[in-house]
């Protein structure tokens, strides 16, 4: 049985393109690439290596509409 030849893979590729269409496959590829890039960026941030990207702007992690309840309660107590 062994591994598939190039012709087997080309036939499988043609069948997949006929079933899903090229646009959907392109979208899946872009989504997968974005997920991998986000994972790599997250791992870089988790390791604490900001020196790897000194030109990168600081990311705003908090949403501007988020309300910090603890800070609001502390300000009321004072």
TrEMBL record:
<feature type="compositionally biased region" description="Low complexity">
    <location>
        <begin position="45"/>
        <end position="56"/>
    </location>
</feature>
<dbReference type="InterPro" id="IPR003369">
    <property type="entry name" value="TatA/B/E"/>
</dbReference>
<keyword id="KW-1003">Cell membrane</keyword>
<keyword id="KW-0472">Membrane</keyword>
<keyword id="KW-0997">Cell inner membrane</keyword>
<keyword id="KW-0811">Translocation</keyword>
<comment type="subunit">
    <text>The Tat system comprises two distinct complexes: a TatABC complex, containing multiple copies of TatA, TatB and TatC subunits, and a separate TatA complex, containing only TatA subunits. Substrates initially bind to the TatABC complex, which probably triggers association of the separate TatA complex to form the active translocon.</text>
</comment>
<dbReference type="GO" id="GO:0008320">
    <property type="term" value="F:protein transmembrane transporter activity"/>
</dbReference>
<dbReference type="GO" id="GO:0043953">
    <property type="term" value="P:protein transport by the Tat complex"/>
</dbReference>
<feature type="transmembrane region" description="Helical">
    <location>
        <begin position="6"/>
        <end position="22"/>
    </location>
</feature>
<comment type="function">
    <text>Part of the twin-arginine translocation (Tat) system that transports large folded proteins containing a characteristic twin-arginine motif in their signal peptide across membranes. TatA could form the protein-conducting channel of the Tat system.</text>
</comment>
<dbReference type="Pfam" id="PF02416">
    <property type="entry name" value="TatA_B_E"/>
</dbReference>
<keyword id="KW-0813">Transport</keyword>
<feature type="compositionally biased region" description="Basic and acidic residues">
    <location>
        <begin position="57"/>
        <end position="78"/>
    </location>
</feature>
<keyword id="KW-0653">Protein transport</keyword>
<feature type="region of interest" description="Disordered">
    <location>
        <begin position="43"/>
        <end position="78"/>
    </location>
</feature>
<dbReference type="GO" id="GO:0033281">
    <property type="term" value="C:TAT protein transport complex"/>
</dbReference>
<keyword id="KW-0812">Transmembrane</keyword>
<comment type="similarity">
    <text>Belongs to the TatA/E family.</text>
</comment>
<keyword id="KW-1133">Transmembrane helix</keyword>
<protein>
    <recommendedName>
        <fullName>Sec-independent protein translocase protein TatA</fullName>
    </recommendedName>
</protein>
<dbReference type="InterPro" id="IPR006312">
    <property type="entry name" value="TatA/E"/>
</dbReference>
